[in-house]
């Protein structure tokens, strides 16, 4: 099977739309999906960083959604014609997976970031037969088609705009899941969100939907305006005495804080803004050593890393869709669509902050 895909051949290269070859159909437990749309996530672009160990050339993309066109075997739980949102890969049988914590799968890094399932390597090549890295996050959805493990796919109502739903599989799931799953925020709680990009704004929406008082911190006025529209109190990141201002706005300190920036300064500010026993969650990967200032973890404050919003995608994605249908999680307002052929323009707009969440349409 031959189809178009965006191939990244080196960290410095532009994406190139090429013909790629799927040499085999879906194996037992897999599905073939015609991709309707795929969100562009910062994690996709992190392969350009010097610390990345992800193999190239590859087809990236891990916020896909589309329509099932073929199933492998009889036990996928899905049928031809089903509309699905695709999420991250997991082994399904380690202690974390069987404990309903697939984001902490013991094979998460190897399956999603460092080469995927080795048996897939020969199945997916470029038009000349050259090797492409096995499926990125179990998907490689910057393409017209994707083969994914069925357990990574969440069936959705076919009346929904499936092309826009892909970001629910990672970026929006991460931000909203941190609020709804990791913190379990509710009415009367106070939340500070550091960074108002796609993940941070999803967290703001979820916190507002939960009834929490929310402060959003960012350095871009346009992002702060969006956060305010979604119910947060906006606060510029360069404000004098940022921890003190957050404490005043949250009646003595935030019970929860979510950092999406990986900025050591903002992480320390967030810890100082917490009330006693408060919890700061980090979702961005740290690339340098984190130095904590004295006293920031005193009085029961705690710091943890949150992966994929502590989500079971098959549970959280339908919940987010339900909130969206009720007008309480308007994630579609963050999306701008681009043809897949304009992927380099989408990346530039994402890097420049001109768009919160690009979605590529094959």
From TrEMBL:
Similarity annotation: Belongs to the zinc-containing alcohol dehydrogenase family.
Domain Enoyl reductase (ER) residue range list: 6-360
Pfam families (UniProt xref): ADH_N, ADH_zinc_N
Cofactor entry: Zn(2+)
Keywords for this protein: Membrane, Metal-binding, Oxidoreductase, Transmembrane, Transmembrane helix, Zinc
Designated name of the protein: NAD(P)-dependent alcohol dehydrogenase
Keyword Methyltransferase: no
